[in-house]
């Protein structure tokens, strides 16, 4: 009900309220036969249709679940399929990694024959058309435009060692359109967001402390707070 | 101040100091985030009906350009390689999308009709909201799932801006009266995670052996509950506990509880607030 109508009702007192109630009853009487007719005629048809859709949906989702279960990989299976040749085909060599706190960088040489020097790429950046998604002590993970993933291992004297997932079927192949400036922008975005997240986390801790302090002050400090099961 | 009050104040002080100095930073729960995972469904039910999704992207924090890239349930990229950009030039502006407008329905790799998308703001660090609606309809135009009176089995939830490194759960499932429950788990990141799922009856008794599933990076797993657990006498009602035994960020999910009378519960899997982290831009595809 609008505020103005509520105000008028309050000012009008019981007699106005009665008049409005009577008005609503008249509206209800006028619409009731139509509602009943709808219930008798419309709903059974709709219900039958919904039942059919329900059964079709259950069948479809059970099929999806069955296929998904069959496809489930056993625990411990490698994330990617070994294919050193494919990694070599990209011409990417991992020369080094930098892990310092939240900062993770990969030093990647684009191609052995390339005249340009190695590139220092942050997580989230791009190199050779691949997106750097993870940096670990001995390897980095790259992801292609079709979701194919490749692990580049750190060189230990020999040639580049790499593993890659099988390529997605052809039909959607398109040259990557990623520039270095985009990679830099992404890195800046990540830094800005991480700063905001850190501030937020700090606020959360302080809020928790205040809540706990209030709880203690109100005499609930002695109540144990059980640690969630892990 | 009497002795009791002094003692209380001292305890409070110590608690405060201990929490601020030593306490681990807690993740802030929130789905309004600049990186989100969204469920993607577009299944042909026959007779012109599709079980599909409708998305409403809202620039609630400020103007945003959102890039959406999708994956099928076999962790393959689908749709345009560069994704689809959704430009929201004003605070509060919204845009409605469907699997068709996201460019995935014509992709041969999307034959299962099942997958997920990563929505990432590429223009700023501003956060947005996504409303995901699932349901059956014959009208595939944006917004029709919500507006067309013939749509049925409709449920709505939001995009998810967080993943979990450990504990999560489904609060309730039922198969009473022919109801059906489906659980979809997604690993939006790139490294494989191992999940252990335990089925409980309504009294908290574990049913059968826990189910262990490996979830590849960018992969999706769909389970029919409770059938997937293979319990000899599965309970009619209960709950599910999920533990990411990899102890590293990398899973989230939704569940769909559908009833023969047309009621639908479409909800996000509950992620333990102690174990969540917001999806990082660095992991965006």
- State the CATH topology of the domain at 84-168 in chain A: SH3 type barrels
How much of the sequence of chain A is in beta strands? 15-25%
Q: How are the strands of the biggest sheet of chain A laid out side by side?
A: 4-5-6-7-8
What's the β-strand tally of chain B?
20
**CATH architecture assignment name of the largest domain in chain B:** Sandwich
Task: Give the helix level of chain A as a range of percent.
Answer: 40-55%
Derived from helix and strand composition plus strand pairing, the structural class of chain B reads mainly beta
Radius of gyration of chain A: 32 Å
Distance, first to last CA of chain A? 50 Å
Q: Fraction of residues of chain B in helices? A: under 10%
Tell me how many strands of chain A there are.
8
Give the N-terminus to C-terminus distance of chain B in angstroms: 60 Å
SS field, number of helical segments of chain B: 2
User: So, CATH architecture of the domain at 84-168 in chain A?
Assistant: Roll
Identify the CATH class of the domain at 84-168 in chain A.
Mainly Beta
Low-pLDDT windows of residues of chain B: 10-28
Largest sheet of chain A: 5 strands, antiparallel
**What is the typical, i.e. mean, pLDDT of chain B?**
90
Rg of chain B, Å, rounded: 21 Å
Polypeptide structure, described:
The complex is a heterodimer of chains A (230) and B (285). Chain A is α+β, with helices and mostly antiparallel strands and 230 residues long. Among the domains of chain A are: 1-72, no CATH class; 84-168, SH3 type barrels (Roll). Chain A has helices at residues 3-71, 84-90, 180-220; strands at 93-100, 103-109, 119-122, 126-127, 130-135, 139-143, 149-153, 161-164. Chain A has a five-stranded antiparallel β-sheet. In chain A, a hairpin with a 2-residue loop joins β1 (93-100) and β2. Mean pLDDT of chain A is 61; it is low at 1-44, 73-86, 157-180 and 221-230. By secondary structure, chain B is mainly beta. Chain B folds into two domains: 35-158, Sandwich (Hypothetical Protein Tm1070, Chain: A), CATH 2.60.290.11; 162-283, Hypothetical Protein Tm1070, Chain: A. In chain B, 8% of the residues lie in helices and 45% in strands. Chain B has two helices and 20 strands. Chain B has helices spanning 3-22, 144-147, and strands spanning 35-46, 49-58, 64-72, 77-78, 84-88, 94-97, 114-121, 129-137, 152-158, 162-164, 167-174, 180-186, 193-201, 211-215, 220-225, 237-244, 252-258, 264-268, 270-271, 276-278. In chain B, strands 1, 2, 3, 4, 5, 6, 7, 8 and 9 form a nine-stranded antiparallel β-sheet that branches. Chain B has a five-stranded antiparallel β-sheet with strand order 14-13-16-11-19, with no helix packed on it. In chain B, strands 15-12-17-18 form a four-stranded antiparallel β-sheet, with no helix packed on it. Chain B starts with a helix and ends in a 7-residue tail after the last strand. Mean pLDDT of chain B is 90; it is low at 10-28. At the A-B interface, α1, β5 and α3 of A face α1, β1, β4, β14 and β15 of B.
């Amino acid at each position: 009900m609008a505020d103005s109508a509520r105000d008028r009702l309050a000012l009008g007192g019981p007699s106005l309220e009665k008049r409005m109630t009577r008005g609503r009853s008249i509206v209800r009487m006028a619409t009731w036969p139509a509602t009943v007719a709808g219930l008798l005629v419309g709903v059974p048809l709709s219900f039958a249709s919904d039942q059919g859709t329900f059964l079709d949906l259950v069948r479809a989702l059970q099929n999806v679940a069955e296929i998904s279960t069959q496809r489930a990989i056993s625990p411990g299976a490698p994330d990617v399929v070994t294919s050193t040749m494919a990694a070599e085909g990209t011409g990417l060599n991992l020369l080094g990694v930098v892990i310092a706190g939240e900062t993770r960088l990969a030093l990647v040489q684009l191609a052995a024959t390339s005249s340009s020097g190695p590139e220092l790429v942050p997580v989230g950046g791009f190199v050779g058309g691949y997106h750097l998604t993870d940096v670990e002590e001995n390897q980095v993970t790259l992801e292609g435009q079709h979701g194919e993933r490749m692990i580049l291992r750190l060189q230990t004297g020999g040639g580049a060692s790499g593993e890659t997932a099988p390529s997605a079927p052809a039909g959607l192949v398109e040259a990557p359109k990623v520039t270095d400036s985009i990679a830099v922008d992404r890195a800046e975005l990540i830094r800005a967001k991480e700063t905001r997240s850190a501030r937020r986390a700090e606020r959360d801790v302080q809020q928790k402390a205040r809540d706990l302090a209030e709880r203690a002050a109100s005499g609930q400090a002695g109540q144990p707070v059980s640690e969630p099961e892990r | 101040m009497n002795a009791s009050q002094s003692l209380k104040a001292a305890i409070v002080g110590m608690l405060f100091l201990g929490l601020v100095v030593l306490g681990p930073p807690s993740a802030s729960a929130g789905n309004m985030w600049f990186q989100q995972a969204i469920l993607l469904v577009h299944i042909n039910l026959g007779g012109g009906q599709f079980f599909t999704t409708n998305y409403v992207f809202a620039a609630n924090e400020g103007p945003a350009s959102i890039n959406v890239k999708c994956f099928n349930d076999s962790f393959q990229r689908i749709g345009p390689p560069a994704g689809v950009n959704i430009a929201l030039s004003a605070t509060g502006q919204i845009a409605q999308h469907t699997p068709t407008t996201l460019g995935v329905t014509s992709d041969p790799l999307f034959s299962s009709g099942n997958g997920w998308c990563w929505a990432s703001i590429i223009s700023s660090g501003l956060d947005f909201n996504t409303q995901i609606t699932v349901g059956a309809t014959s009208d595939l135009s944006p917004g029709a799932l919500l507006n067309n009176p013939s749509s049925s089995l409709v449920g709505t939830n939001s995009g998810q801006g967080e993943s979990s490194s450990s504990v999560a759960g489904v609060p309730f499932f039922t198969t009473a009266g022919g109801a059906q429950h489906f659980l979809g788990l997604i690993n939006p990141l790139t490294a494989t995670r191992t999940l252990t799922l335990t089925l409980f009856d309504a009294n908290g008794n574990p049913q059968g052996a826990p189910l262990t599933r490996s979830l590849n990076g960018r992969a999706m797993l769909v389970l029919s509950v409770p059938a997937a657990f293979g319990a000899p006498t599965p309970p009619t009602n209960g709950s599910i506990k999920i533990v990411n035994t990899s102890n590293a960020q990398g899973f989230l999910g939704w569940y769909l509880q559908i009833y023969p009378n047309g009621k639908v519960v479409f909800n996000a899997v509950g992620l333990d607030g102690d174990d969540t982290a917001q999806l990082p831009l660095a992991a965006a595809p």
